[in-house]
Structure formats: C-alpha cells, structure tokens
Amino acid sequence: MSTISVTVNGRTYQSDVEPRTLLVHYLREQLNLTGTHIGCDTSQCGACVVHVNGESVKSCTMLAVQADGAEVTTIEGLAKNGQLHALQEGFWEKHGLQCGFCTPGMIMSAYDLLQQNPNPSEDEIRHGLEGNLCRCTGYQNIVKAVQYAAGKMGGAGEKGQDPTAETSGDSPGEAYIEDVASDKGGERSPETVVGSDEAPVAGS
Q1: Are 106 and 128 in contact (CB under 8 A)?
Q2: Are 117 and 170 contained in the same domain?
Q3: What angle do CA 108, 45, 137 make, to 5 degrees?
Q4: pTM of the predicted model, to two decimals?
Q5: Residues 81, 53: Cα–Cα separation, whole Å
Q6: How far is Cα 89 from Cα 150, in angstroms, rounded to an integer?
Q7: Domain residues for 198?
Q8: What is Dmax (Cα atoms) for the chain?
Q9: Per the structure, how many domains does the chain have?
Q10: Are 197 and 33 in contact (CB under 8 A)?
C-alpha cells in the first residue's frame, strides 16, 4: 500500500491505495465520487475526464499515486452553492445529453476548452471535444450547450483556475483533511474528518 494526499473538489483526502490503482477507480470506489464514469478503459471515450492541477486528464490513464499532492476537480466540483455551473446548465437547456453516460467527461473537457478559449467557434468546440465520444446526440446539441455556456461565462476565468475555490475569504485553517481508510476484509473503516466546525462528521 502507498499513502497519498490528494485535494479533490477542495477537500484534502489522505488514503491508502494499491500502487496499481487507477485514479478513476480511486475516485469512484474510495471517495464515492461516481460522477466520473468508466467507459472503455483504453483512453478512447473520454467519459472519465477530470482536471488535475487545472489540466484535463483521462483518469483511466493515470495512477492514483501519480496524483499525490495534486488538486483534482471532478464533475461533482463544478456546481457551487446548489447552483449548476454554466456548462451543466447549458447541457440541460440545450438538450446536450440523452443517456448521459458521456456527459461528465464531455463537460469537464468543455470546461478546459473554455478556460483556454473563452469564445470558441463551432469548429474549435468540435476540435476541442474530439477526445470525447457520444453515441446518442450526434454532437450538435453538445456544441450548442458549450456555446450557451461560453455566453453565460462571458470569457471569465483563467487557465488552471480552480472552479471549486471559495471566494468568501475563508482562511486556510478552515479547510479540512479527510482520512479515507482502505477496504479491509470487505468492510470500509469509518472516515476521519478533521477541520472546521462546518466539516461533516464521520457517521453523520
């Protein structure tokens, strides 16, 4: 086992992982962040895209130990205070999904695109999403969803900006660390949470 410390969606987790564990399996199975999907295991479909230190990464191609010390953002980290991110809203408003399986990875790739190019053309959107496959929509409404989000975002945001970052002036001491125990004997030990009074309490 290796011990890693990873900040995911603004929370820092310390976990024991097997060296062979893929980042996508760590997120889904140990952190229970199942919005990141597994579609192919061959880096073809893009359903597993997350952001690592501000860069989009297919998490089926990266080991969890390689994310030690990194900041990771998953689809769960985009919405803030109960409000959908502009991209999530765009996929809803413009019917950019049918079965929805590809949607988390599609949105995360589109977010990376809009950080680099706040006002992309239709061709630039299609090129930016070439690494993400969809079997349902024919892509047209996905392009419309990204255009919708680009308009709502107004070109705001810089490359590498963490969409989960708080802007209310919270002090660093209010962050918390979650110690995620590895599975032992088929049962997962309770998580230990240390930090501010607002942090969730184990077993609550």
Answers
A1: no
A2: no
A3: 80
A4: 0.76
A5: 22
A6: 11
A7: 1-77+166-204
A8: 53
A9: 2
A10: no
